[in-house]
Amino acid sequence: MVEESAVPNEAASTGEGSGGPRMRTAVVVVVAQAAAFAYALRAPDLIQNALGYMVAPALAFLILSIWWLRSKTVARRDRLNGFALIILLAILVSALPGAGAGQLLPYAAPVVLIGVVALLAATSSLAWPRRKGLVLLYLIACGAFFSLLRVDDVGGDLMPITAWRWEPYIGEWTDVADASGTAAIPAAAGPSDWPEFRGTARDNRLAGVTFATGWTATPPREIWRTRVGLGWSSFTVVGDYFFTQEQRDRAELIVCYEADTGEQIWTNKTSDRFNDSTGDGPRATPTFYEGELYVLGATGLLQRLEPASGKTLWTHDLKDDAKAKIPRWGFASSPLVVGDLVVVFAGGPDGKSVLAYQRDSGDIEWASGDGTHAYSSIQRATIAGVDQLLSTSNVGIQAFVPETGQLLWTHQWPINTNPRCVQPLVADENSILIGTAGGKGTRRIRVDHANNAWDVNEEWTTRDFKPYFNDFVYHNGYCYGFDGKRFTCIDAATGERMWKGGGYGGQVLLLPDMETLLVLSEKGDIVLLEASSDGENVLEKFKVLDGKTWNHPVIANGRLFVRNAREMACFELPA
């Protein structure tokens, strides 16, 4: 496909032609690839995404390479030159600065392969030298186009997030200068505060809050906007201050900010950095409880801090205490305080899945459980009238006595592919929903307790709702959350899907007094949806952040706090 040569002589000596390839096989292959790619754009599951984005182009390239190299109607030199040119283009795209060592290839491969085959098929009436020239021009155009793109990140569907090279880029914030102020932290969280991950019940349900919509005329007022370090932590808001976790250069930080201004009050640094292709930095959210602050870093460092100054009071490393390795996507369990204990998922072997530490001393009180792989946090709940701690993991779900760690019951639902990341959802005093990605879906179990015995049974399982790291909420008998990236409603009693809406990605917060769902999308939009099983009804949409946004939004004291791995902002909600 590259250079014209004295093909007739070579063809005559080898019995090969020079009139161009027979296109039937190639057309069938690229049509199948295009269909797989189109399906992947709307697929609700990461495995399906990967099949369409990565496996299908790779398989198409393999088949087309064999077809092309074995095409006896094309001179050998043209076949070898054409194959070499495609390989060279792939190498150049992979080597582009900011392209992430080939992250553009899932975009580039379908464009190049489908375009070349379509061009050859459409020009079959032309002489072979002219067809070769058109293909060469097309490949040059593809190379020029993809050289103008850069990869800034990877989305929840594992596809690259691209931008034009001339667009402004918000790079990593590397300011590690110490801030050593003092915050006037109250002794206990107030009723309008947000003291831990997903709220005090860890259900992302915020009752007693209403605000005006009509944002076209009166949008939320931005109070401040500022840089923030890498990471996927949410906010803990107490009084006039808030806390979050972030990565700056080689230091992992817990930072206290002033809620009115976004100004740093103090920083607590550790010499740790967790690197991951989907995003560096800490995953968990600080927990405030009765004048104490507990944090877990991505590499497993658990700390108790003095919230007024950020001073470290005690430190433990889960890698040592649980004999656990750093998970592929980092330690992500936000600490849970239960009485005199602070509890985290550690993922250690030999009964060290969940660890409980004494709040005052930091000594280990108990270790229990079998799960070794999960990215959710421990959840407290009252099930069948009994107070217990719930832990979802690769084994399924287990429940423990808070004070002792004694195992109460287990529901086996093992997984070996995509890990469990979302919180278990307690639908009523006997029912729990477990969300799982990777094609497994969501299961509802019923838990009963009588005569000192536990009875746990599956009620239903659906593959129409497969949440990954996007938590879901419960309202009036229905669950609202994400099937992959697509926002979805299911009947919590039956598992029946009521509707599937926009591909927002991101996280959701329930506002029951407004019958409203607040979604912070992966693209940084706030989307207000009606909490109704009748269908998707978008009430408002408002841009708040730029760049990939996976962090949970928080509303506290009449303000909306949002962040991602680059910036954070605070908005006053209209009354």
Summary, kept brief:
The protein is α+β, with helices and mostly antiparallel strands.
Describe the structure.
The chain has 575 residues and is of the alpha+beta class. The protein has a domain at 7-164. It contains seven helices and 34 strands. It has a four-stranded antiparallel sheet with strand order 3-34-33-32, with no helix packed on it. Strand 1 (149-154) and strand 2 form a beta hairpin. Helix 2 packs antiparallel against helix 3 (46-69). The longest helix is centred in the N-terminal third of the chain and has 24 residues, at 46-69. Residues 1-16 have low confidence and may be disordered.
What is the strand and helix layout of this fold?
Layout: H1 7-14, H2 24-42, H3 46-69, H4 76-95, H5 105-122, H6 128-147, E1 149-154, E2 160-164, E3 221-227, E4 236-238, E5 241-248, E6 251-258, E7 264-270, E8 287-289, E9 292-296, E10 301-305, E11 312-317, H7 318-321, E12 336-338, E13 341-348, E14 352-358, E15 364-368, E16 379-383, E17 386-393, E18 396-400, E19 407-412, E20 425-428, E21 431-436, E22 441-450, E23 453-462, E24 473-475, E25 478-483, E26 486-491, E27 497-500, E28 507-511, E29 516-520, E30 525-530, E31 538-543, E32 554-556, E33 559-563, E34 567-572
Antiparallel strand pairs: 1-2, 3-34, 4-5, 5-6, 6-7, 8-9, 9-10, 10-11, 12-13, 13-14, 14-15, 16-17, 17-18, 18-19, 20-21, 21-22, 22-23, 24-25, 25-26, 26-27, 28-29, 29-30, 30-31, 32-33, 33-34
